[in-house]
Amino acid sequence: MAKKSLQLGRAVEWPHTPEDAQLDRVPNPQKGTDYLVRFTVPEFTSLCPVTGQPDFAHLMIDYAPGPWLLESKSLKLYIASFRNHGAFHEDCTVMIGKRIASEIKPKWLRIGGYWYPRGGIPIDVFWQTGRVPKGLWVPEQGVAPYRGRG
Q1: Distance, CA of 29 to CA of 33 (rounded, Å)
Q2: Which amino acid positions bind substrate, per UniProt (predicted)?
Q3: 70 assigned binding-site residue
């Protein structure tokens, strides 16, 4: 199956499911340099697979690019495809990390899913590929643990 053309610079329909979403990559012009790219998704939404109620999370995606960069418009469309997708917090977080890693083949990637409480219990989910490249500056993700009114 041939890869579709980039979604950048043209109107595209919103994908209905994460499986329908296309993640685009572009060549890394600094592929000989180790550096970190961070995507912050403060308003991620998906659905509880049991109740159908909406779930909300703050996602932090950090990666050290290899030969490819993740194109941000395609990431926005991919993230939006979860709005009507029913899956547990753990599945959504790890699925996103694995899909991005598969598409762009980074030197290293981590995703932090900071989920807002469901049933009074917040759930934080973390996944990464391998080890951080030696000497790479990786700042803290900066998302405080959920404290409610504390």
Answers
A1: 9
A2: 70-72, 89-90
A3: yes
Q: Helix 89-104 and helix 72-80: axis angle, to 10°? A: 150
> What architecture (CATH level 2) is domain 18-24+34-129?
2-Layer Sandwich (3.30)
pTM above 0.90, yes or no: yes
For residue range 103-127, list pLDDT tens digits in order: 999 999 999 999 999 888 899 999 9
- Which of these is catalytic: 20, 24, 34, 55? 55
Query: What pLDDT shows up at residue 149?
Result: 62
Q: Quick check: 37 pLDDT over 80? A: yes
**Binding site annotation covers 23?**
no
Looking from the CA of 70 toward its CB, the CA atoms found within 13 Å total 30
Q: DSSP labels for 14-52?
A: PPSSTTTPPPPEEE-TTTTS---EEEEEEEEEEE-TTT-
Name residue 77's amino acid: L
Residue 72 annotated as binding site: yes
Supply φ then ψ for residue 99, to 5 degrees.
-65, -45
- The verdict on whether 124 is a catalytic residue reads no
Phi/psi at 114 (nearest 5 deg)? Answer: -105, 95
Give residue limits of the domains in the chain: 18-24+34-129
